[in-house]
Design a protein that fits this description.
alpha+beta; Aminopeptidase; 8-stranded mixed beta sheet
Length: about 150
């Protein structure tokens, strides 16, 4: 009898993020086109929320300060949930895991370029709008959002 595995967040190599990035974020582009320039920089890490053996959600995090802020920050990029798992709490659990993990570093905040369609998701996690809406060519409308870790 197969033992059921509990859903969980795991650290993964960036290569495992590529299929979901392609499918959800890049309209099926080849995997090599979905590699981010920050995927392998020092301090970068990648998370997946697994349901059974399947990756339900991904997110990549790396140290990068937001605009002119002097304090250390982390940027979240490449957040995506597979359609069958969207709205089931996978993304929330993944970001909460990252908040706890990054909260143990010297970082003071996490920021992202959030798709306009995901604003409410990030607001529920405590992120605040930090810009007006802007367009990322070929991807769509976004807002910059910041979560100040010292307030948590």
């Amino acid at each position: 009898m197969k033992k059921l595995q509990l859903p969980m967040v795991k650290f993964i190599p960036f290569e495992l993020t590529l299929p979901l990035r392609s499918k959800i974020l890049r309209n099926g582009q080849p995997l090599k086109e979905c590699v981010l320039p920050t995927d392998q920089i020092d301090g970068a890490f990648h998370l997946a929320f697994y349901v059974e053996e399947e990756i339900a959600c991904i997110g990549s995090f790396f140290p990068k300060n937001y605009t002119d802020r002097k304090e250390l920050g982390y940027q979240l990029r490449g957040m995506a949930s597979d359609a069958q798992f969207k709205g089931k709490g996978c993304g929330t659990k993944l970001v909460q895991f990252a908040i706890e993990y990054i909260g143990k570093t010297n970082a003071e905040y996490i920021w992202c370029n959030a798709r306009s369609s995901a604003i409410e998701f990030y607001k529920k996690l405590g992120f605040e709008l930090a810009s007006n809406e802007f367009e990322i060519a070929g991807i769509g409308p976004h807002y910059e959002m910041i979560l100040n870790l010292k307030k948590i």
